[in-house]
Specification:
Homodimer. The chain is mainly alpha-helical. The chain is built from 13 helices and 5 strands. The structure holds tryptophanyl-5'AMP (TYM).
């Protein structure tokens, strides 16, 4: 079976609707056809300062959310990145193959570092995408389900795979980004020109927040001064975002929704979407609590996932170390 790898950072108390619709929903369905490796990427998380206890808690909380969304630990390897030492090890080798300028062109790095003083920007934040490439290449992944914002990191990963293969002989599968068509970028409800992210809490639907709060945020979503409910990203980004979310959560097409809401007001759309979201998150939150109530079981699942992951990652790393000319330790 072809392979999938993807990862998510444990840097918030909850995943948000952008994470789910842009990536995690695909993680779940791809289990049908792929051999999947899914990681909570704690090494990536510490590229910016984290509170240690909070990081530990959020790592378990992330795993619990992934299980509740339908990641099946019997079919897929669900693991914590720091449990698999090969990630950091391969990352070093790939860093030595990455140009300084090449890494400097990553727009996520440019955006994130522009917001901080130079001495507060860690070298880890700079090499972040190379570690991401290592995550992917260790598992010989064919496909990587991610949102639009990860496209450039996937392009770097492909370049590094090809560079290594042509210098040392075929070692890595060159992966494809798997980016959903209609939900590749979910926008902030308060600022429909920006992607939904943890930085503007008012416009973000968090899967773990009180569903009443989510419904309220949807009711106060920024729209436009027209009255027509029509999908038009250019002129009606707010309404289009709400329609995209509605469509993705219910399986109804955008066209169907436009017809259903013909002649009705924005308030109706917002109220109904609020109900759809409440219906989705209520059972989800219950399941997350179930997993968190049994931390020993959760840790066992993660231990098993790391073992599965290491079987594959260790073999790739052995091959890489051999190819670059390291002496095999005996
Ligand atoms: P992270 O943790 O920021 O986000 C996890 C996933 O959610 C997607 N996403 C979105 N999709 C649509 N609309 C949005 N508003 C939105 N916000 C976030 C992201 O594209 C991502 O797929 N660098 C990665 C983590 C990572 C990784 C990897 C991913 C580390 N190693 C290997 C794939 C393969 C990140 O920061 O994702």
């Amino acid at each position: 079976r072809p392979r999938v790898l993807s990862g998510i950072q444990p840097t918030a108390d909850s995943f948000h609707l952008g994470n789910y619709l842009g990536a995690l929903r695909e993680w779940v369905t791809m289990q049908e056809q792929y051999e999947c490796f899914y990681s909570v990427v704690d090494l990536h998380a510490i590229t910016v300062e984290q509170d240690p206890e909070q990081l530990r808690e959020r790592t378990r909380l992330s795993a619990a959310q992934l299980l509740a969304l339908g990641i099946d630990p019997d079919r897929s390897a669900l693991f914590v990145q720091s449990h698999v030492p090969e990630h950091a090890q391969l990352s070093w080798v790939l860093e030595c193959l990455t140009g300084f300028g090449e890494a400097g062109r990553m727009t996520q790095f440019k955006d994130k570092s522009a917001r901080q003083e130079a001495d507060h920007v860690s070298v880890g934040l700079f090499t972040y995408p190379v570690l991401q490439a290592a995550d992917i290449l260790l598992y010989q992944a064919d496909a990587v389900p991610v949102g639009e914002d990860q496209r450039q990191h996937l392009e770097l990963t492909r370049n590094l795979a090809q560079r290594f293969n042509s210098r040392y002989g075929k070692s890595f599968t060159v992966p494809e980004a798997h980016i959903p068509k209609d939900t590749a970028k979910i926008y902030d409800l308060q600022d429909p020109g920006a992607k939904m992210s943890k930085s503007v809490p008012s416009g973000v639907i968090e899967l773990m927040e009180d569903p009443k709060r989510s419904a309220k945020k949807i009711r106060s979503a920024v729209t436009d001064t027209e009255r027509e409910i029509r999908y038009d990203v250019e002129n009606k980004p707010g309404i289009s975002n709400l329609l995209a979310i509605y469509s993705a959560l219910t399986g109804k097409s955008i066209a169907e929704l436009e017809t259903a809401f013909e002649g009705r007001g924005y308030g109706d759309l917002k109220k109904e979407l609020g109900e759809v979201v409440v219906e989705f998150v209520t059972p989800f939150q219950q399941q997350v609590r179930g997993y968190l109530d049994d931390p020993a079981q959760l840790d066992k699942i993660l231990h098993r996932g790391a073992e599965k992951a290491r079987e594959v990652s260790a073999a790739t790393l052995r091959d890489v170390f051999d190819k670059v000319g390291f002496v095999v330790p005996r």
